[in-house]
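Hi again,

Forgot to attach this to my earlier email, sorry! This is the prediction with iron/sulfur cluster bound. I've pasted everything inline since the attachment limit keeps bouncing my files.
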Amino acid sequence: MYRIRFHGRGGEGMKTASRILGSSFFFEGFQVQDAPKYGAERRGAPVSAYVRADHKQIYERGEIHKPDLIVIADETLLHVTRNTVLEGIHENTVIFIISAMSNSELEEIINSGKSIIKIDPAALPENYHRFLSPITASASACFTGKIQSSNLIRGVKDELKTVKDDLIIENVAIAEKIFNEMKSYSGIVTETGEITVLRDPQLITLPLHNSSIATPVIRTVSTSVKNQTGSWRTARPVVLYEKCSGCMMCNVYCPDSAITKNKDGFPVIDYNHCKGCLICCEVCPSGAIRKENEKIRRSETV
Amino acid sequence: MSEGLIKNIKDLAGEHNLASGTSICAGCGALETVKLFCDILGKNTVFVNAAGCMTLLAIYPFTPFSGSWLYTAMASASAGAQGIRDALDILIKKGRLSAAEDLKVIVLTGDGSAYGMGLSATSAAIDRCLDFYYLCYNNEGYGNTGHQDSAATPYGARTATSSSGAGFIGRKKDLFSIWAAHKPAYLATVIAAEPMDFARKVETAMKIKGPKMFISLAPCPTGWHYEPHQTVSIGKLAVQTGIWPLKEYKDGKVTHTKVIKEKLPVEEYLKLQGRFEHLFTPEKNLVLINEIQSSVDQYWIDI
Ligand SMILES: Cc1ncc(C[n+]2csc(CCOP(=O)(O)OP(=O)(O)O)c2C)c(N)n1
Ligand code: SF4
Ligand code: SF4
Ligand code: SF4
Ligand SMILES: [Mg+2]
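Structure tokens for the complex follow:
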């Protein structure tokens, strides 16, 4: 069975990628499971999706803990949810990542001794962010060596059938391009047989409570601050204090209450919670908030 | 947040009553609305929240609220508010809660609930002169389930259930007039992108007993398909193009609180949003754009 796990951020198209790959396997005659892992997370939050494909009926369920291929659409995830992204690497796991980092940098960060296949965004169209689904799905399809390009294209078209024709054409074109460019890796991802249950479930018997105490009740206010939504950020607002007038527009318009006021009346961005929407940059009348690339700064904080 | 009257925008700055760390999308206009509302209203609150995006605010064991919060089904938030109001009144009457500790009861729902499923329960609550606030954050669709169209979806917008052709063929329901016909104590349209207008209206409502109703247009990057940083700009354009009239109903009279002398063309608002992209590409659909423009023009002629 092939077990393939996609990692990205909400809005980057990993659910669609898993569906394209799943459909492509299906058209090739495989039994398939494809599903996103759902939480309450929204656009920008780390998300994952997975595909299982086999010639036999698939009885395995749930998340993939021992992937044959890990797809990482957003390299910043290596800093924020590294353990989740790299979970369950085994002897033959292949890692595929879209990253501008050098191979040695990547090897140092991933540190798994596994083969890493990389596409540099510089080699992709400038608006590649809009096409992460066909890019990652077609690369994955190619790596298995089991999917013909015709069935990949069918998968892309099938999944995107509700969008505009010219957008489908663009998606198909980029899928074909990546599929061809990755040809030298055809067959690098291999199947793994049955995985025996890793550990027995620990069942605990809960006593029967009456409904007044069985209903979830939160007894403290403002507990949400425990969630470090700063990890959602792909871009970072930085206050340039020499330009800042202290007008506090940024503080008023930030939807996430992620800007506080220091004792001198100037704004301080709470990077543990700022989601990087950049509304503050847009509303600042003095141009005193600069947008920075999160990747460059990520190592310094969080 | 300063205590007392809000005179300028700085009075809305500082510490906020809605905490960070929620699971809501980056750049969410609805979250901005709720945050502003909490800041103006204060901490002694209980929110009664019908299923929708904002129910993700409080996911056990996390809550951003400084007060209480209760989850209800989509159709019954206003009925839930009645129960809470009654309970508070009984506690005060029995001396188990001092009047100073009284809580403001706020129904918080999306447009799917306010314009559709919850309308009946809300109608009944206004009939009973329930002393409560209703805050509808209107993202013009069933956001939480993937942005299907609702009775608040504008004509021509694409949604998950009107994803092709000319987009949504329905005409946005006029909930303001429907609620106004019930003669509530107070009713207003607001938008977080105009915080001073918003603050003045909430402060007006705070002095009044009875049903106090708010409809806030809430730009939604996820459902409207635009970049999150544009939420405030798009909100301001909704007002400047005349698409989202800011008004209030009080003592039987409707007043427009921000009359734009030189309205911008609706195009300025529409073209920033992916849900209207089909009006501009592959070629400009002037018929549809003009139709939207003339319905806005007609509104402002009629008032
Ligand atoms: C009776 C009922 N039908 C359907 C649902 C599923 N549901 C949950 S949230 C939601 C969307 C609500 O839309 P809206 O009120 O506009 O709030 P938004 O999600 O846009 O914030 C739906 C349909 C439900 N919870 N209850
Ligand atoms: S980018 Fe700015 S407005 Fe957005 S969450 Fe961060 S601090 Fe707030
Ligand atoms: S909006 Fe700009 S000028 Fe005003 S306080 Fe924020 S950073 Fe400073
Ligand atoms: S879908 Fe829209 S309204 Fe819902 S949380 Fe996201 S941005 Fe806000
Ligand atoms: Mg809605």
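The pocket of iron/sulfur cluster (ligand 3) is lined by residues A 239, 244-250, 267, 284, 286, 288-289 (CB under 6 Å). The first strand of chain B starts at residue 45 and ends at 50.

That should be everything now.

G.
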